[in-house]
Amino acid sequence: MLTWSLWSVIRPRMLLAGVVKLLNSSVQFLYPLLLNQILLFIQTVETSELWKGYTFAVAFGLAMIAKAVLEGVYFFLTFRSGWQVRSIMTTEIYQKALRLSPSARQSQTVGQIVNLMQLDSTKLEMFVAMAFHVLWDGVYQIIGYMVILYTFIGWAAFVGLAVMLVAIPVQGLVFAKVLALNKKMVGITDDRVKLTNEVLQGMMGIKMAAWENKYSEVISGYRAKEIKLLRSTMFLTAFSSAYMMAMPAITAVVALSVYAVNVDGNIDAATLFTALSAFGQLRFPLMFYPNALNQLVQARVSRKRIADFFALDEVVQKSKGNRRVEDDDADDAGSDVMVEINDGVFYWKRPSYNAARLDLGADGKGANPVSMAALNAQGEGEETWPDEDIESGENEVERAALRDINVTVKRGKLVGIIGSVGSGKSSLIGAMINELFCAHGSVTLRGSVAYAAQSAWILNDTVRENILYGEPFDEKRYFEVLKVCQLMHDLEVLDDGDQTVIGERGINLSGGQKQRISVARAVYSTRDIVILDDPLSALDPEVARKMFEDCILKFLKGRTRILVTNQLNFLPQCDKIIVLDSKENMPGEIVEQGRYSKLVTSGLDFSRLMEKYNGKEDEDERLAESELSLNAAKDREEEDAESLASERLVSSLLGPREGSSSVAKAGIQETEGKQLMQVEERQKGAVQFSEYVGYIKSGGGYLFFIFVLFLYVLSQVGTVANTAWVSIWADDNNYEDYSLGFYLAGYALTAILLAVITYMRSVAIFYLGVRASAKLHKELIRSITHAPMRFFDTTPIGRVISRFSKDLFLIDTQLPFMFSFFLFTTMFVFFSFGTIGFTTPLFLAAIPVMVIIYMYILNYYRPLARDSKRLESISRSPVYAHFSETLGGLSTIRAFGNSGAFKAANAEKVDENLKGWYLVKAIERWLSVRLEILGAMITILAACLAVYGASEGTITAGLAGLSLTFSISITGLLNQTVRTFAELEAGMNSVERVLFYSKEIEQEKAFDSPNPPPEDWPSRGALEIRNLRMRYREDTELVLKGLTVSIEGGQRVGIAGRTGSGKSSTLSALLRLVEPEMDDPEGPGPITIDGVDISKIGLHELRSKISIVPQNPVIFSGTVRSNLDPFNAYEDDQIWDALQQCAMVESIRESGGLDSEVSEFGENFSQGQRQLLCLARAVLAQAKILLLDEATSSVDYETDAAIQNTINSSFKGSTILTIAHRMLSIIEYDRILVLSDGQVAEFGSPDELLKDSDSEFSGMVGELGSDMAGQLKTLARKAAAARSE
């Protein structure tokens, strides 16, 4: 189906190309015929009219010109068809990715999908452009040349063909072996690129754990396997080149021996050179036909890989189970119920029949009362899932994500969703927005949807464009959204306000800022239903309260709101609460739902949870306080509403052009700020000689390269000797000097020697290429992994990945061939000119003119070809960067219904890339036609001089044949020399790009130091920070402004503060992810640990002694074991014990144990589960200093309490620094460090700070409401008392 679809698009152009190819091949048949006529004329020059000789000479040149023009048209047509195929595949793969179901997305890594776009689509393109018509034209050429040979040497031609046909299977075996090696290598390349992509995406976590060298070794291990296969391919390819170099000569020897015997050895020069020319031309279809078959096989493999990807499960936009009512019948759209789920059973992927029976209840008496109805519906025409997706014989069964789901959400209501880690909160949201497969029941959404995901998805664009998300700009509404989403303060501190460009994955924003921008995007839209998946977890209490009250309660009032949260203090103000739970080995289900007042008195799970949260007060007192809290919220709402109304009025009256101070302070700007992401480097002019030197040094050095050059010179000497031998033979056709056997043996011997030299020079140049490639990758991975984090802040990951995939692929597989072919063609041109000049000295006078014309064309072509290739390379990276960005936000894009805009953006980037590619190929055709015409002129001149020399008696037929043979060859090789040099330059552009990232990008400080700290350092974990100043980049403001604090060893310190106050920056400074500002770089640094100045030790020595659980968990594809213990340092019992302490044992056992699969970025685990896995790593490491950056922000309160107990017991005696917006997590700590604007605002015990009602910490606690504030004060007092005992 895929094949026919592509053929329907390219058929007209490819059929026309076929006609042109037929004419082109027919013209080539004239070469040996006209050569024969010229040599016959020279043999009989005494009896022939001179004008006939010149006529044949000119006709020879005209045939070459016709061939040049036809070939140019043919290749232009086929390459255009190839571009079409590649662009279609690229855009279709992108569009398919937009439709992938979550489970299908997890089955494919970013690296694998990128390879489909980069490599597989390119293989389809090259088959269409280079091999499609060869499959029939090769047969046509073989038949044509055999007819010519039969005409001249009779049935001996078939003897020669038989020799060639016998030789083909050997070549076929070589190609088959090369194909098998390439197939293995593609798999290893996929794995290497996939791991490299994950390492780059998780570079922050890699650096925090000091895993750079270890992961570099793992990647290098994959690379070593690639290089081993590449070497094997190199030897086989060299053998193939040598074999095909010798075969024409051996074939000619056999055929001419038979012919000579048949005609008593009487072979004249015309017949000899005609036969050799025909056999030489016959070599090309025979040589390239197996290559065309090889390309066909590779194209079929790539087509199957792409077809398999296209067959992956999709999110069905319109089905009976999932329905959005926007443009449907008006009566239904006007219903008061906005979200409705009835008897829902949901899976992350389409289930097998057996799995559905298990989850629904196989006998109709299971947990789900409608189970048999669901199964029986299969035979009654009710669509639950397509019949072809039922695999009744499957042994392995999938567990449903959710079951027994019945939810009704009315228009304008606020619904809160809570539950423990892994209970299915995000799954329920996924079911609502059609991200899960509905196996039974129905889901109906009446209205449009806006969605903010749990992991905030941020575009590499300005703050404003992230919020607008394609909506028209309404300044009044925009300003209101900024205010209610608490972004005003952030825009004041961002360099360019709302025009600040956000880096890839929101790298230059804090977690809270990313989350609030994500929410602002949903709020700014005018969608009917707003779904927010735990957006408050990354915010400090004050900001969370204001955002909940100003944004969710007030601004969104009247719109349907669904809020997933672990912040229990907001639940009393929800209109409805849904409680989810997941028992052992069972799907998530709703255990309770209703109003807060009903659930809190039910005595069930929710009631018990709220008792733990609010303390053990009397029930009536708690309800009364809840009522007071609601009244207080209403009072605040009225006050803030008046204030907001006033600000809106002022903004409206002044307008954007009057310079409203509110707007100015908010950082709203009309001009776009400076780009955070660096413009990709683009070298100008010729590739620097130093790049060639770098490549040669990496490949073995100067002496080895001189040896390679010597082998190429020797190879050309052998080529001239082989052809000259034929010339001598032709002039001794009566065998007066030597016998026929002597000439045949000499011809065969020179051919064999030429084959041996060809093998040696091929192996030598390939060895240089493979060795250079291996060294370039080694230096590249070292440089990238040791680059500072600001490099990754300002460089798109797609740009870096293109170095490891496309550029290295070219350096591996194409650059050695380019180098080899350039050296071969250059030497051949020089030796050809020398040979023609030797046979016809007058030709030497024309060489300077030809060289001037040649150099003029070369100098005109080179800069165009070089820069157009660079433009194509630069325009390629945005395609893959945009693709990677899209894959990170599929659920958001689909929920908003914004796929069309992203498809258009992808098509625009692909078109931009194709502009460069089109230019490259158009320039190549321009060059090809002109240089082949120049070559035809050389042939006309050589032929005319041969005719003239024969008429003057100064040249024999044998020498004329020698001259014409080289003049025919030089026609194509003049073009090939220039093109190959341009391709070599373009290939060296990849070396240039790799060397730039290997040598030019900034590097971190030394990984190891000459004087490392003692092995047992740090023994106490005492931290001393004095006047710590830090900025992320030179062009940004200070984020830490003289921070000073002293922390005793073994203390537990909670770090609090408003979003953007410098909390995470402090941890970054401790790990030296960003180096602090120092007046004297040689002087003492601002941070010491146990008296050791951390600025004077190596980064590995520092980071390996500190454990951190980051705000954004870093999870790699693989297994649970490989994530917790990537380098096999721990026993299974230790790993299970760590999981037990992190409350993850049951979840891991349910998923299949330590060897259960973890998808890319851990997407088959919830956000909370990913955080707990990262915490388990820290438990295993048992470092003396533990840093926790919102490590439990996405888990429920009960799990958080259990985790805090684990931390207290497992890290007893360790220094613990915890950033937490959840005050309950840090209220029992020894000290609280409150930061404000990069400085210490408060530092003391929780109890001391809470006694001061004016302290910032007291204000944060007060934001949680009277119930929670009272409980926290009690816990702080008890903890203080316990410490004093």
UniProtKB/TrEMBL annotation:
Claim: Membrane is one of the keywords in the record: yes
Transmembrane segments: 12-34, 54-77, 127-148, 154-176, 235-261, 267-286, 702-728, 740-768, 815-836, 842-861, 931-949, 955-974
Topology in membrane: Multi-pass membrane protein
This protein's record includes keyword Cytoplasm: no
Main location group: membrane
InterPro entries referenced in this protein's UniProt entry, alphabetically: AAA+_ATPase (IPR003593), ABC1_TM_dom (IPR011527), ABC1_TM_sf (IPR036640), ABC_transporter-like_ATP-bd (IPR003439), ABC_transporter-like_CS (IPR017871), ABC_transporter_C-like (IPR050173), ABCC_6TM_D1 (IPR044746), ABCC_6TM_D2 (IPR044726)
Pfam families: ABC_membrane (PF00664), ABC_tran (PF00005)
Domain (ABC transporter): residue spans on this chain: 385-607, 1023-1262
Lineage: superkingdom: Eukaryota
UniProt xrefs under CDD domains: ABC_6TM_ABCC_D1, ABC_6TM_ABCC_D2, ABCC_MRP_domain1, ABCC_MRP_domain2
Family membership noted in the UniProt record: Belongs to the ABC transporter superfamily. ABCC family. Conjugate transporter (TC 3.A.1.208) subfamily.
Name the record gives this protein: Multidrug resistance-associated protein 1 (ATP-binding cassette sub-family C member 1) (Glutathione-S-conjugate-translocating ATPase ABCC1) (Leukotriene C(4) transporter) (LTC4 transporter)
Species per Swiss-Prot/TrEMBL record: Durusdinium trenchii
